[in-house]
């Protein structure tokens, strides 16, 4: 099986999905979902975020979640960290990997992190120091890599320069994130091809939102450029603060269904994912955007109506 | 500008969208929408269907719609016809083009049309006779070309044989329809490439539903194989009787936004389409699946929040 026949999905619903839910998801429910996701075959799960409990009360139980989940051998449990304090909490909670985040857009980084981009990079360097010798992996994300809702298009050179600086800091993985769903397939193919001249596909993750309906088309465009690893959220949880009613992350089970129909292996149990997704509306208290959980797999046939 | 830089959208909301709406859309509202669509730049609009008013009361005003719309020079107003009687009504109402429909799947054709496939083909021959000398164009659709909800996968040879038989009957255009959204991009690329060895791209239309989230990815796959012409519905109207809550046709304004972001010309006024789509919930009485109308175009920027 060649790399062209495989796609690696990192499940991010417990972090990127739950962080914006207005209703607090009970810690036991979070743990049950993460454990079920582990059993469904994920090798990477972004389990929580060590942000300020005041800023994001939805994830105030980050340490307890990491402590109580049943860790599956071979699965990497990732924690997003916004700063050194968050990194120290995540290290104490024994996250397998820290995901550091800043935006390509100066305006977005100030709005989202309260820091200039240079201050974020300096914080990254301190986190790298703190993690040294712990055996914990580091990934760094370029948010708004495909466009910023305040500034608009971001120069590819700016994004690629950040990739270079991340690698120089010593992080293992890099994520390019389309934070508010502004990317298009032509842009994705070009930027991913350039990023892959700097970092091998095994270490690059693409994070797409389906805000304007292009999430899965962007996945295929990234794959054509050589990408292997993608973030996705069960049920398409997540969202965009600037687009009420807009859809969130690309939907895990829709992505996996597409892959399996195209003979691309994911190692994931699609039936289990659909069952889990169908439980989400009861958990979060609203409908979710995922479509395969509503429509069924293409191979789920129906009885024809009786005709005269 | 090469053919690679152009995509032709046929708007089908007035037919494929309105036909399944439980609430009757007033004739004046249908006409106002079609006229606004004409002004937005469409060169092809599937305006209605001459089905039995008992079977599809939603479109019982087909003749009045065709009579009262303000026809735009250069725009082709298409009417779907299920049988010879419908074709005679459509010819009397001066449709510019008739769209004949049957399914690749014998089971689906019996369920949908009440006919065997051979009986449908015989009816097509009679319709061709009836249209001869009128100057009215003919298009014929292969429904369930990418899969049948009762039978499952359809052999490509079966679909391509129907394309051959349509062309032998003398129709000008052929549509391959993914009636219940079962297609995937790999399958689309392969089948479209084979179809284009039989019919030039200018005469082939692809009709995708977004039932499982792959509609726009399938458009790009078809384009890679050389396709030029696509059906889409404003707001993503339409649906699938076997998947309550599932999305319908691919969404016109989402498709057009994608194209314009990728420097593919459509000749359509995206701002006008978004305005029209934002009026649909009031017209049909429910939310619609289109995403760009909710999220705005990628270039619609937001003011950054004030930070300390």
TrEMBL record, chains A, B:
MF terms (GO), sorted A to Z: hydroxymethylglutaryl-CoA lyase activity; metal ion binding; transferase activity
Domain Pyruvate carboxyltransferase positions: 7-274
SUPFAM superfamilies (UniProt xref): Aldolase
Keywords in alphabetical order: Lyase, Metal-binding, Pyruvate, Transferase
Keyword Lyase among record annotations: yes
Family that this chain belongs to: Belongs to the HMG-CoA lyase family.
Name of the protein in question: Pyruvate carboxyltransferase
Species per Swiss-Prot/TrEMBL record: Methylobacterium nodulans (strain LMG 21967 / CNCM I-2342 / ORS 2060)
Upper classification of the organism: Bacteria, Pseudomonadati, Pseudomonadota, Alphaproteobacteria, Hyphomicrobiales
């Amino acid at each position: 099986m060649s790399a062209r026949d495989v796609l690696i999905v990192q499940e991010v619903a417990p972090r990127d999905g739950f962080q914006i839910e207005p209703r607090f998801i009970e810690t036991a429910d979070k743990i049950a979902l993460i454990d079920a996701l582990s059993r469904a075959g994920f090798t990477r799960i972004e389990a929580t975020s060590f942000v300020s409990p005041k800023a994001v009360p939805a994830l105030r139980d980050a340490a307890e979640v990491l402590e109580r989940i049943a860790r599956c051998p071979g699965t990497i449990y990732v924690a997003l960290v916004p700063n050194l304090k968050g990194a120290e909490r995540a290290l104490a909670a024994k996250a397998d990997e820290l995901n550091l985040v800043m935006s390509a857009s100066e305006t977005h980084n100030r709005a989202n992190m309260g820091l200039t981009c240079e201050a974020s990079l300096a914080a990254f360097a301190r986190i790298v120091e703190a993690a040294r010798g712990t055996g914990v992996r580091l990934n760094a994300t370029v948010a708004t890599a495909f466009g910023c809702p305040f500034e608009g298009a971001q120069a590819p050179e700016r994004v690629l320069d950040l990739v270079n600086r991340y690698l120089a800091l010593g992080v293992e993985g890099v994520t390019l994130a389309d934070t508010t769903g502004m990317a298009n397939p032509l842009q994705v193919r070009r930027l991913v091809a350039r990023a892959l001249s700097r970092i091998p596909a095994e270490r690059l993750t693409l994070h797409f939102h389906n805000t304007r309906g292009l999430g899965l088309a962007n996945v295929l465009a990234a794959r054509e450029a050589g990408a292997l690893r993608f973030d996705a959220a069960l049920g398409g949880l997540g969202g965009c603060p600037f687009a009420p009613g807009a859809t969130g992350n690309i939907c895990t089970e829709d992505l996996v269904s597409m892959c399996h129909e195209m003979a691309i292996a994911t190692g994931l149990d699609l039936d289990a994912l659909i069952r889990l997704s169908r439980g989400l509306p009861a958990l979060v208290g609203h409908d979710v955007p995922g479509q395969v959980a509503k429509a069924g797999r293409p191979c789920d046939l129906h009885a024809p109506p009786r005709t005269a």
